[in-house]
Amino acid sequence: MEALLISLAVVAAAEIGDKTQLLALLLAAKFRKPLPVIAGISYEAIRWAIKSKSKFVAKLMVPGLLLQKLTTREPDDSMLEVAIVSAKAVIPNVEQSDGHEFQ
């Protein structure tokens, strides 16, 4: 397990290229909370996987996509109604594209 963590740390350090990753690493070190670092590495791994054209990487993504398909669904009418009411409460008097006010 220690070898895996060291390897992960080396790869993560090698991949620090943008300010967001560097900030996440500094904040995690300052507040001693590794969750931002794990989230940052996960985000970068997902970004890389999406851009990759490798069939191996595509097969690695299948379980996550199946889980996403299992846990998400189209909203029904009652959910849409709640969303519309919530939007009206938060964004009053927004004009629609046809010029009428959103009431």
Tell me what you see in this structure.
This protein is mainly alpha-helical and 103 residues long. It has 2 domains: 2-72, no CATH class; 74-103, no CATH class. The protein has 5 helices and 2 strands, in the order H-H-H-H-H-E-E. The chain has helices at residues 2-15, 19-31, 35-51, 55-71, 77-90; strands at 94-95, 101-102. The chain has a two-stranded antiparallel ribbon. Helix 2 (19-31) packs antiparallel against helix 3. The longest helix has 17 residues, at 35-51. The N and C termini lie far apart (58 Å). The mean pLDDT is 78.
Distance between the amino and carboxyl termini: 58 Å
| Dominant shape | extended
**How much helicity do the residues have?**
over 70%
Share in β-strands: under 5%
Biggest beta sheet summary: 2 strands, antiparallel
- Widest beta sheet: strand line-up: 1-2
**Mind telling me the C-alpha Rg?**
21 Å
TL;DR of this structure?
The chain has 103 residues and is mainly α.
